[in-house]
């Protein structure tokens, strides 16, 4: 649904999505590979996870705080819903890591154990990598929606606006769109 809102409100509605994109880029696409390359160790792999979870908690708290504008509130809620996908990726990765750890316990040869750990670690991180890519796409779309004054219908139904700004139906959007002359 499209709403007529101010530029300030649009800017505030983009904040949770910008924060989400920063989280994905900084902690998942830059920090995690850097930690792997620098061979910091298994404990070092927890740093990006901890920082990402910290941003998620901050987003969740902001989403549940009082907001002056329903449009801004709706976009914070949308970001929280998208974080659930990333949390599912974390859970699947944790389950695969646990399974891999149990498999390596049954191996007597230390060299084979190292090989198994390396292979299983690479396989186990794939759910998070896939969810990061999916979330990048979804958050890019959400940024576009916030810029255009849109709120997804699912969010509008789940969190109906209390002070409903004047919504623009598709028919009214076509009427209010600036008309540009066709070239030639």
Quick overview:
By secondary structure, the protein is mainly alpha-helical. It is 73% helix and 2% strand.
Helix and strand sequence: EHHHHHHEH
Q: How far apart are the termini?
A: 34 Å
Overall helicity: over 70%
Give the overall average pLDDT. Answer: 84
Major β-sheet strand ordering? 1-2
Strands, total number: 2
Please mark out the parts with pLDDT under 50 across 5 or more consecutive residues, or reply none.
164-182
Largest sheet: 2 strands, antiparallel
The rough form would be described as: elongated
Q: Number of folding domains? A: 1
Strand % is under 5%
Give me the secondary-structure category.
Answer: mainly alpha
Number of helices: 7
What is the CA-atom radius of gyration, in angstroms? 22 Å
How would you explain this protein's 3D organization?
Helix content is 73%, strand content 2%. Mean pLDDT is 84; it is low at 164-182. The protein contains seven helices and two strands, in the order E-H-H-H-H-H-H-E-H. It is an all-alpha fold. Helix 1 runs antiparallel to helix 5 (126-147) and helix 3 (70-105) runs antiparallel to helix 5. It has one domain. The chain is elongated. The two termini are 34 Å apart.
Layout of helices and strands:
Blueprint: E1 2-3, H1 7-37, H2 46-63, H3 70-105, H4 110-124, H5 126-147, H6 153-158, E2 167-168, H7 170-176
Antiparallel strand pairs: 1-2
């Amino acid at each position: 649904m499209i709403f007529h809102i101010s530029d300030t409100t649009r800017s505030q509605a983009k904040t949770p999505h910008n924060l989400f994109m920063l989280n994905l880029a900084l902690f998942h696409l830059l920090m995690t590979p850097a930690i792997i390359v620098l061979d910091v160790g298994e404990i070092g792999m927890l740093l990006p996870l901890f920082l990402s979870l910290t941003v998620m908690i901050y987003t969740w708290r902001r989403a549940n705080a009082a907001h002056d504008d329903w449009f801004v509130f709706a976009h914070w809620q949308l970001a929280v819903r998208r974080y659930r996908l990333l949390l599912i990726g974390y859970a699947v990765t944790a389950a695969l890591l646990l399974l891999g750890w149990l498999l390596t316990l049954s191996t007597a040869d230390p060299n084979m154990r190292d090989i198994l750990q390396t292979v299983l670690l690479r396989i186990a991180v794939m759910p998070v990598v896939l969810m990061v890519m999916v979330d990048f796409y979804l958050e890019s779309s959400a940024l576009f929606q916030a810029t255009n004054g849109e709120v997804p219908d699912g969010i509008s139904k789940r969190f109906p606006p209390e002070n409903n700004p004047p919504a623009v139906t598709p028919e009214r959007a076509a009427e209010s769109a600036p008309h540009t002359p066709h070239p030639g």
